[in-house]
Automatic annotation (TrEMBL):
Family matches, as SUPFAM superfamilies: alpha/beta-Hydrolases
Gene3D superfamilies xref list: alpha/beta hydrolase
GO molecular function term, any single one: catalytic activity
Protein name: Pimeloyl-ACP methyl ester carboxylesterase
Location of the AB hydrolase-1 domain: 3-226
Pfam families given in the database record: Abhydrolase_6
Upper classification of the organism: Bacteria, Bacillati, Actinomycetota, Actinomycetes, Pseudonocardiales
InterPro entries: AB_hydrolase_1, AB_hydrolase_fold, Sec-Metab_Biosynth_Hydrolase
Source domain of life: Bacteria
């Protein structure tokens, strides 16, 4: 199976480095994505849109043998991007895995609007995040994260998500809860909270707890990899 992994804000494809070997050892072909404008800190991000990021993931899907289906794995803001890619290619995706994030619906946003500086969004000070977000992210991991972080294009958090194909709701989803629990997520869904409303329309959703902070690819990478493997194994 080809597994396409889409990072969230401030991260490139290398952020999956400790997850990939477990997937590869299980026989899967991994495709970690470095989204447009995220190849280096010096890249020009001023004109990059949310649609540019979605189309980059769609190209990864199209690069796979058309006789095969793929699994899409998204983290945080990458969940909304993956959901839009599912909308573009619903017949090519066998499952979407959302880690610490939600499949944002049509007319919504894929991420919170963090402070913008010159058309891009740098990684904020840690004080911006809650204790639950930072759980497991010790001083060494924080330093490593900040060193590798790349500002994200500002329009990723400001552009409106546009979806059109209702067949996206036929693609099964695994929601991996990290800094919140699946019980909390189910409660938000039951209360029809806007940010999770798309879950109510998806026909098959599996909920998995992976207690840690917002970045399990750094704090619990092997456990995250095994959770992804378990999701891939679902019919």
């Amino acid at each position: 199976m080809d597994v396409i992994l889409v990072p969230g804000l401030w991260l490139d494809g290398s952020s999956w480095a400790e997850v990939l070997p477990v997937l590869a050892a299980a026989g899967h072909r991994t495709r970690p994505v470095t989204l447009p404008g995220m190849a280096s800190r010096d890249a020009d991000r001023s004109r990059i849109t949310l649609r540019d990021h979605v189309e980059a993931v769609v190209r990864e899907i199209d690069a796979v043998d058309p006789r095969e289906k793929v699994v899409l794995v998204g983290h945080s803001a990458g969940c909304g991007i993956c959901h839009a890619a599912v909308d573009a290619r619903p017949d090519r995706v066998t499952r979407a895995v959302h880690i610490g994030g939600f499949p944002s619906g049509d007319g919504g946003a894929v991420a919170d609007s963090f402070p913008e500086e010159n058309g891009e969004i740098p990684l904020p000070d840690w004080s911006v995040f809650g204790d639950e977000d930072l759980a497991g992210l010790d001083e060494d991991l924080r330093a490593s994260f900040r060193e590798r972080s790349i500002p994200s294009p500002a329009r990723i958090t400001r552009d409106v998500q546009r979806l059109r194909d209702p067949r996206r709701y036929d693609v099964p989803v695994t929601a991996i809860a990290t800094e919140y629990s699946t019980a909390m997520l189910r409660d938000w869904i039951a209360r029809n909270v806007e940010s999770v409303r798309e879950f109510t329309r998806i026909r098959h959703v599996e909920y998995v707890d992976l207690p840690t902070g917002h970045w399990p690819q750094f704090t619990r990478p092997h456990d995250l990899a095994h959770a992804i493997l378990a999701a891939i194994g679902k019919p």
